[in-house]
Amino acid sequence: MEQAKLKTRSEIPEQYKWHLEDIFPSDQAWEEEFLKAEKLLERAEAFKGHLGDSVETLLACFEWMNEVGQSVGEIYTYARMRRDEDNRNSRYQALTDRAGALSVRVGSALAFVVPEILALPEGRLEGFRKTNEKITLYDHALEDILRKREHVLSSQEEKLLAEMGEIAEGPSTIFGMANNADLKFPSIKNEKGEEVELTKGNYIQFMESEDRRVRQEAFETLYGTYQKQINTWAAILNSNIKGDAFFAKARRYPSAIEASLHDDKVPLTVYDALIDTVREFLPEMHRYVKLRKKALGLDDLHMYDIYVPIVSEAKMTIPYQEAVDMCLEGLKPLGSEYRKVLEEGFTSHWIDVYENQGKTSGAYSWGTYRSHPYVLLNHQDTLDSMFTIAHEMGHSLHTYFSNRTQPHIYAGYKIFVAEVASTLNEALVMEHLLKTTEDPKLLAYLLNHYLEQFRGTVFRQTMFAEFEKKTHAMVEQGEALTAELLSSIYLQLNTDYYGPDVVMDPQIAMEWARIPHFYNAFYVYKYATGFSAATALARKILDEGEPAVERYLKFLSSGSSDYPIELLRKAGVDMETPVPVREALQVFTSLLDRLEALL
Questions:
Q1: What is the DSSP letter of 180?
Q2: Domains plus CATH for the chain?
Q3: Which helix (H) or strand (E) holds 364?
Q4: Which spans in 9-54 are helix H?
Q5: What does the DSSP assignment read for 333-346?
Q6: Separation between Cα atoms, residue 342 and residue 337, nearest integer Å
Q7: Coil, strand or helix: which one is 538?
Q8: 514-557 pLDDT tens trace
């Protein structure tokens, strides 16, 4: 049989590629901006030691920082996204390295600002406000700086930590290059017996196959490949966690998790309550696993049986353009203004659609303050890929509305709220499909898919969050995270979350080795809290209509002009209580009841 090979970048039609020329028309323009940014950095000396001289000096410094931030943001984003098109391209590897080094220099050059502001005599900022009202624009930013006073070091120490940044990024960079550029998987035989190259992009598609042999072969081949370098993956992750612990200790935080949460002004109780509430509902998760085992007619349910749709007769193949149309229809409740921007994104080369050799796996939304947003996809013509489009465009429109409404300093939003915008889109599209589907088999399929979203976004991400909390605590207590220990922790968590009706295949114990999010610690819990908040907000939009849409669009336009929990409270959900998570999991229970009735 002829082997189906992954296309090269040049073989992908232009209509399915993003246009990074909207950031820089050429690499030469990037080089010119790089030189401009280096010149901008030289102005640091004019401000250093003088921020308390006058309100005009402080304002000029903030404006200079905004200019530097915009310039370096464009430099880094362009280089990294060019590299993501094909990680094997040495030119863009080099540009990304230069951009990363420049970002570190920026951090070093700006390191004096926060310590100087914190060192201002009492009453100086208040005096500035009385003489020039323009400074009020920066009230929230200044409040956030003062809130972190006890965790900000001296100017020299801050400079040193900033210069450590490039070294600290080492484990993440090494993992990314090993995982995306160097790691190659053997071919497996598909349902027709054809040799097909296994990739991270098509792995889930194989895991959804109705042919159990294909699922098992894909599962064992993927993890067998990671197993060959298991000690290397453990060393990389261990180094990354040690870095988190070092920076937390250097900044006088009790732990890495508290250092991470403090940035969003999220109390540790929110993180712990998420884990506690999800564990409270694990019997419902076990009930779902038991239903899956029964519906698939299996004597033993294995970890490679977790992704296959329960209702195989209704399997959906959704080409890209059809997926786009489904998203547009499902997101109609968000109104005409939202739809207009959404259509622009789909027709103006915001999106890089298909997988190609060397392309970064997964999906993301990115961009710069002055450019439109961008979306990287690896579309596979599945229902899951359709929801990925809705998800990433949720991020992109959040970026669009925030950039359009907020000044640069507040345009970027925290991850804690970012996952609300993306997951709400998925919820609305799903609610539309559940409402308009009459075929019982297709309805059962959609219910199964929605339950899978809960499993993947609430249960699984909370399991990841537990793994991060446990592993960081061990490092902070002086323990060495060997491959064996990491696998042992991970296997026990899988056993807890999936329950007695699934066979714990030994390969799943090392899934931690392939999770990129573990290199951005204490990020994944925000998927679960975001999903919960999004479930509540989607329900309000469908029930209330225009008033809820207006509140939501205001939320999308708020950037980081307030703390995440406050922004969500204004939108209509209070994440400081367990109510949104509990309500989301009650929806999971009701969906499970509906699916059981259909099966």
A1: I
A2: 9-168 (1.20.140.70)
A3: strand 364-367
A4: 27-41, 44-47
A5: GG-HHHHHHHHHHH
A6: 9
A7: helix
A8: 999 999 999 899 989 999 999 989 988 999 999 999 999 999 99
How are the residues of the chain apportioned to helix, strand and coil, as percentages rounded to the nearest 5?
70, 5, 25
Q: Catalytic residue numbers?
A: 392
Q: What is the pLDDT of residues 469-505, one digit of tens each?
A: 999 999 999 998 999 999 999 999 999 999 999 999 9
Sheet strands (E) in 73-208:
187-189, 195-197
Any idea which residue has 């990037």 for tokens?
30
**φ, ψ (nearest 5 deg) of residue 571:** -75, -20
Residues 6+ apart with CB under 8 A from 312: 210
Tokens of 190: 């598909």
The C-alpha atoms of residue 261 and residue 113 are separated, in whole angstroms, by: 23
CA 261: distance to chain centroid?
A: 16
Question: In which band, very low, low, confident or very high, does the pLDDT at 29 lie, cut at 50, 70 and 90?
Answer: very high
Residue of 111, 94, 100, 58 lying closest to 75 (CA atoms): 100
List the structure tokens of 578: 């367990």
Mean pLDDT of 291-309: 93
Question: Which long-range contacts (C-beta less than 8 Å, at least 24 apart) are formed by 33-38?
Answer: 33/71, 33/74, 33/75, 34/75, 34/98, 34/99, 34/102, 36/71, 37/68, 37/71, 37/72, 37/75, 37/102, 37/106, 38/102
